[in-house]
């Protein structure tokens, strides 16, 4: 069945037609919902087509890193749940899961979303922001869904207080201070065609992948994947497309967080 599907997609792609009937530089339908995990400090669920990713934030007291004694920490992890795909299984982190967490983390970390110095409490004590990603359903393009969910979860995080040597969580908790809104756009090269937001079937045919994480006026991270390549001209065109498409994605984030 998978071979038949691949051949069918190849035939359609050769005619310039995507299986989802959208053009090369269009996303599938996107929804972004916050507050999906009531016991977390912040949470959000991003859905792109049939791909569904949940992000949860937990804030805990921690010791600072030795090289940044007056800054807090960000720790990002990802779980590819078995219910999301037949290719996922219970066990230690897979290379795909590690890459997913790292790509999302890189955009968030270098995008100026969190001012780590504001997570400093006192000497020897800082806040550690734990960002946990859960893939609920896989149908391609985890990176963009993960970045959207992470951005919305962080932007709606309520910060506990440290008082009298205790962590206090109550109804008066205020939102975590955030800076830029970062989004990512992932492109695939499929049969020498450049496509935005490849779905699961398209990812099986991809030769190369490029993810661009940017704010309104700057690129903050890029990740190239798979064994194929992009020309300089292709990369320039995809960067231009990322800046254009990120306008739509930032609008989705702003609406979800009530900004």
Roughly how many Å apart are the termini? Answer: 46 Å
Unreliable sequence segments: none
Helix percentage: 25-40%
CATH homologous superfamily identity of the domain at 25-180 and 247-257: GHMP Kinase, N-terminal domain
Shape: elongated
CATH topology heading of the domain at 25-180 and 247-257: Ribosomal Protein S5, domain 2
Reported for the largest beta sheet, the result is: 6 strands, mixed
What's the CATH class label of the domain at 25-180 and 247-257? Alpha Beta
* Mean model confidence by pLDDT: 90
How large, in whole angstroms, is the Cα Rg?
Answer: 19 Å
- Structural class designation: alpha+beta
Count of β-strands: 14
- In what range is the share of β-strand residues? 25-35%
Return the string of H and E elements: HEEEEHEEHEEEEEEHEEH
| Count of DSSP H/I helices | 5
CATH architecture of the domain at 25-180 and 247-257: 2-Layer Sandwich
């Amino acid at each position: 069945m998978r071979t038949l599907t691949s051949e069918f997609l190849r035939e359609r792609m050769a005619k310039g037609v995507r299986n989802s009937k959208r053009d090369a530089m269009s996303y599938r339908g996107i929804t972004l919902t916050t507050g999906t995990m009531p016991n977390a400090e912040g949470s959000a669920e991003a859905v792109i087509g049939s791909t569904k990713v949940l992000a949860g934030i937990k804030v805990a007291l921690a010791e600072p890193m030795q090289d940044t004694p007056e800054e807090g920490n960000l720790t990002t992890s990802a779980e590819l749940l078995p219910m999301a795909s037949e290719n996922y299984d219970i066990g230690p982190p897979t290379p795909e899961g590690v890459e997913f967490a790292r790509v999302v983390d890189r955009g968030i970390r270098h995008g100026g979303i969190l001012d780590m110095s504001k997570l400093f409490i006192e000497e020897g004590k800082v806040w550690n922001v734990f960002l946990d990603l859960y893939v609920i359903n896989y149908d391609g393009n985890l990176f963009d869904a993960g970045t959207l969910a992470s951005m919305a979860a962080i932007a709606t995080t309520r910060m506990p207080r440290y008082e009298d040597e205790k962590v206090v969580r109550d109804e008066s908790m205020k939102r975590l201070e955030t800076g830029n809104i970062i989004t990512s756009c992932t492109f695939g090269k499929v049969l020498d065609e450049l496509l935005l937001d490849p779905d699961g079937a398209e990812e099986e045919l991809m030769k190369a992948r490029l993810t661009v994480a940017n704010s309104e006026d700057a690129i903050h991270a890029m990740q190239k994947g798979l064994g194929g390549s992009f020309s300089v001209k292709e990369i320039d065109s995809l960067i231009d497309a990322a800046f254009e498409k990120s306008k739509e994605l930032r609008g989705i984030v702003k609406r979800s967080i009530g900004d």
